[in-house]
């Protein structure tokens, strides 16, 4: 049985992305419907975990304290709508670092599996960039592309991992997951 867990990219999936990075809590703005989707997942017993590349830290664009404040805002916003983000995993390193956590490498996903003591096989890994899908697929997850953020460009560029599902946004991806779940119950 697939674990009741969803792994989300942050920028372009939960909140609007910016080419200039999200450098402050003020710049963090939810995509309409995304927090409600997180709340629905929680109501159906899913754990929601975020895995996000945040190379802005490594580049010195913002510090860890600021990243923590951004994440407090995200937690609070989810909570106000009845949702919960169970954990946030982030890679603070730059693209030229040799870390194992920056997506498309699957290091963060492995850490999620270890921390939650869960098998990731078939778990939905939802992102708007190719590297999100690649990291998820490498960890055995079901890659899901959403067309918010960079998603349309990612779709048009092609070369998606085999079996990638595509939905308009997190709300639509959540509809699919919950519909599939209720089908399996019958
Ligand atoms: Mg993204
Ligand atoms: Zn890293």
Keywords:
single chain; Rossmann fold; alpha/beta; 7 helices; 186 residues; 39% helix; six-stranded parallel β-sheet; binds zinc ion; binds magnesium ion; 6 strands
Task: Report on the architecture of this protein.
This protein has a six-stranded parallel beta sheet with strand order 3-2-1-4-5-6, with helices on both faces. It has helices at 34-43, 55-58, 64-80, 107-116, 130-138, 151-157, 170-185; strands at residues 5-8, 47-53, 87-91, 124-127, 142-146, 165-167. Helix 5 (130-138) links the parallel strand 4 and strand 5 (142-146). The protein has a single domain (5-185), classed as 3-Layer(aba) Sandwich (Rossmann fold), CATH 3.40.50. With 186 residues, the protein is of the alpha/beta class. It has seven helices and six strands. Bound molecules: magnesium ion and zinc ion (ZN). Residues 9, 11-13, 17, 127-129, 149 line the site of magnesium ion.
List SSEs in N-to-C order: EHEHHEHEHEHEH
What small-molecule ligands were found? magnesium ion, zinc ion
* Largest sheet features: 6 strands, parallel
Shape: globular
* CATH architectural group: 3-Layer(aba) Sandwich
The overall pLDDT average reads: 96
Radius of gyration: 15 Å
Assembly type of the chains comes to single chain
Find the count of extended strands (DSSP E, 2+ residues). 6
* Gap between N and C termini: 15 Å
Side-by-side strand order of the widest sheet: 3-2-1-4-5-6
- SS content category: alpha/beta
Which CATH first-tier class would you pick? Answer: Alpha Beta
| Helical content (DSSP H or I, runs of 4+) | 25-40%
CATH superfamily: HAD superfamily/HAD-like
CATH T-level fold name: Rossmann fold
Please state roughly what percent of the residues sit in beta strands, choosing from under 5%, 5-15%, 15-25%, 25-35%, 35-45% or over 45%.
15-25%
Count of helical regions: 7
Unreliable segments (pLDDT under 50, ≥5 consecutive)?
A: none
For the record, the count of structural domains works out to: 1
